[in-house]
# Entry
Amino acid sequence: MKISIFPPLSIHEIGQRPNQEDSLAQWDNRLFVLCDGMGGHEKGEVASQTVCMSLAKWFEQNIHDDSFTDDQLRNALEYAYTELDKFDDGSPRKMGTTLTLLYIHARGITAAHIGDSRIYHIRPKTGLLYQSRDHSLVFDLFQAGEITYEEMATYPQKNIVTRAMTPGEDNRMRPDIIHITDIQLGDYFYMCSDGMLEKMSNDELLTFFSSDLTDEEKQKYLIEATVTNQDNHTAWLIHIKDVVKEDRDENFENEEPTARCNALNIIPKVIEANQDDVVIVQKLKKDKTLLQRMKDVVDFIMNKKQ
# Structure
């Protein structure tokens, strides 16, 4: 499989925070890394920058062809952890960082994440194919049946992550890894820290990425749409330009439809409106605000084009 992409675009905004703890890195237009640091001033940014830079360095020094294995990914992460350990000061309140990583290679795309920064696979006008499952307290509570999916958005401890890369730990947090082979021209891979999602739902993301805006216009719109967000907010926009299939590709499994780390396999499906008249009325009432917000997004986009 030979995958080419349009020029990748990034967003890196400080929000209303005093310092920027998000970090980005890329190598050879094939490796993309995004990290959201934790630990306060001069702590979170050190963790996120260290992991981003060390992963880019490892790939540059160790990847010499289009092949790629999970063992190589684990070796890269071990190197990043070793570099992060150099900043361990023994404090009980350790610095840390989330991780999202995407690598394009001859077998497709390998995506990995730790924490609540996300990776999306979006097929415009079709739907979301992948959303990384947050390693967070609210997702654990939801899956345990303690809270509903709707309650996750307003739960008081919604920002608590259950996995992060931290220095000086005997037990390293491992990533969820997924292998993606169902890739078509026009697809987007959208990587973002949680700050990008403060006021934007999955439905709005799909509507936005399905618009006829250029990639540069989409980048500009996302920056404008998140200008009042409180948290640091950072993203990669990776747009698939072409995919050339090869005979051997059918030997590689696409894990998106069944992967446990795909949140789309966990979150409740929308009830079809033809099941019951009462359901139709309730569904329309529930979705009215969302539909209006989506309409506002489209109107905003069209006004920008004029």
Residues 2-269 form a domain with the Phosphatase 2c; domain 1 fold (CATH 3.60.40.10). The first strand starts at residue 2 and ends at 5.
